[in-house]
Amino acid sequence: MAARNPTRSVRVGNVTIGGDQPIVVQSMAATRTQDVAATVRQVRLLEAAGADLVRVAVDSRKDVAALAEVRAQTSAPLSVDLQENYRLCVEVAPYVDKIRYNPGHLHHHEKQKSVAEKVAFIAETAAANDCAIRVGVNCGSIDPRMLERYPGDHVSAIVASAAEHCALLDQLGFERYVVSLKDSDWKQVVEVNRRFAAERPDVPLHLGVTEAGMPPEGVIKTRVAFEQLVSQGIGDTVRVSLTVPFDDKGLEISTAREILADIEAGRFRSVPPRFDEGLNIISCPSCSRVENEKFVELAQDVKAMTEYAQEHEITIAVMGCRVNGPGETDDADLGLWCGPAAVNLKRGEESLGHYSYGDILPRLKQELDQIIEAQT
Prior knowledge:
Layout: E1 9-12, E2 15-18, E3 24-28, H1 36-49, E4 53-57, H2 61-73, E5 78-81, H3 89-92, E6 98-101, H4 115-128, E7 132-138, H5 144-149, H6 154-171, E8 177-182, H7 186-199, E9 205-207, H8 217-230, E10 237-239, H9 250-264, E11 280-283, H10 294-305, E12 315-319, H11 325-328, E13 334-338, E14 343-347, E15 350-355, H12 360-375
Parallel strand pairs: 3-4, 3-10, 4-5, 5-6, 6-7, 7-8, 8-9, 9-10, 11-12, 12-13
Antiparallel strand pairs: 1-2, 13-14, 14-15
């Protein structure tokens, strides 16, 4: 196995990412942040499973108030996901050790301000509060400017977006940052991280396959991506993203540690025959952005209902929130993104309406049967 890339060390609370430190294993709380008791319980569950770092999400000032209470009840290193409101970093920074922002979300608010100004605001806030930063680039929410610059080439758009934000932080003299470049396709994850690591071998990388889905498929996708990257010295912290019930989130930690241990011992597993052929179900991990816990059950029901379509080259995406749902279902043949009371059904980028959790499966089957009929 190749030696790890000589990345800089980034301190996150009492954890260090990069340098000569062991690969850090992390996960994300699946509960709604405003449910303080449930979120604290989730953080403790992940800690007990062996998590080095736990991420939570904030999307409103009510979330910030809840985060303050969570912080008071746990000493675990915490990372916060800013969602689409970058200005909330001022309010959350006192309670966390790392701030994650998505370059693709910075254009949503205060459009009169430049991206550079917004990054400077985040960096200054992080520095003032002894926080690290994660620049998190995601396939479903790529900066629109990069999509225009690289039409039809998501890999180049993702790498360029990450590189741009590294340059902005470097110009500000802020070095306590890590980068993640994620996709739901494990092959794309390998490609973007290889390309970025070749360009910026000094920057610690957070690895993960976003919306990997349910076990065992989600575990296999993540494993093969990690095997390809970690064995080449790429990767300083990892997150396994699985669609599992909230009480089973510790599986993400144990799976990550098992994969890393196997790579270290030289135990590599081949991809099952025809693994990338036929029906492909993409589903996001259960996280604190999920607005209805029925999302996990729905994903499992979709998997069971679609067994008859296994031989067909069709992608179905099941997303749990409004933040990632709309964009990350666009590339699927059929997409479901779940709100508090209803599920939004899409065919490609076309919206087909909103359905109750009880009515969505038969409606999805109608569309699936139409696609199968058109293919045969």
